[in-house]
Write a structure and sequence with these properties.
432 residues; single chain; 7% strand; elongated
Length: 432
Amino acid sequence: MHSNPVYRQKKEDIKFARLTFPLYLCLFVGIVSSMTVEQVSDTIHKLHMADGREIILVGTAHVSKDSVDEVSSTIETEQPDHICLELDAGRYQTKTEGKSWSNMDISKVLKEGKGFLLLANMALASFQKRMGAQTGSAPGEEIIGAARIAEKKGIPFSFCDREIQITLKRAWRKSNLWNKAKLLATLISAAFSKEEISEEELAKLKQSDILQTMMDEMAKELPMVKEVLIDERDRYLATSIFGAPGKKIVAVIGAGHANGIVSTMQELEQGTLSTDLTQISETPPPGKVGKVVAWLIPAIIVAIIIYGFIHAGWSQGLKMFLYWVAVNATFTGIAAVLSWAHPLNWLVSMVAAPFTSLNPTIGVGIVSGILEANLRKPQVKDFESLSDDALTIKGWYRNRVLHALLVFFLTSIGSMLGTFVGFPVLVGILAS
């Protein structure tokens, strides 16, 4: 036996630690896992928070009649003291006050460099309207219905989603050229697709396993878009719902966000994730690499032509310059004709394209789109029928607002193709 008092004390300390560690561990796990999740169904999750609050997440398919009924019955059953909606104030105002695109200045939109963003908006709106027509439920009807019930019952409600324009701008800004092309192609093909979806198929889209498969596929094809549209909004929605007032909260969300919101809530509850949303609430500035590349290609083209004048003689340099003009103008001219632009616009676009393609701050699409909007000024009927005309290819040619946007898009693509084709042509001439 050791009679050393220091040794005996150390032994007692070790014994105490051994006995109390499990208790401490249980307490720690209890604190960390204090939020419990009850999955009532594929579409409803109940979150029991450490402070006694209860948050009911109702996942919807946005264009499903069943979702409208489910949201209504959940609110009636649960009688919450606060309702959170996956919507921003701007979209709610548009849907409830009947505001349309009638106050849009297409020339101003193009001047501000928002042409592709508007194109994505229109394609998305077209797709939503077509889906609503097929299912008999307008896009977001279950969310608007929840707001109406809240107003009727005097239940406070709040908008918990990020402003749509910020989301689209972030998705666009964070995508490279190839992913931007894929994003636009996906939206446009969806807008004009004739494939119909049934209520049974919509019901499947609310099942967690199918939704996870879809999320995984999106992550592979469009990783940055998935990050902005899904992951960032999971965090934004979860944080907004987490900070909402009330002891019992019903949150009406898209079914695709349910799992992400639950996991984010757990992090917020544990304090491992900040509630500060500033970083994902702003439009990111253009990347430095993108800026460099945008100026580098035109600089190389100009350098090649100048080199041809200096080292290959005046005639060779002039030949290279004329080839550049011819290739870029030809592709842009073809695009202008295909877009059925005004004949004067054909000429202006072809003349402008070889020079605007060398200046990243202004593209030929901006020039041709603004000119088209002025040569064929949109009328009141064009704004009134905008959403219906956006559903068909014929409508994009007939409607003057959409037509100006179409001219902008196709001539931009034409000039882009002209640049990619013209560059190797110049290199080939110089090498010969």
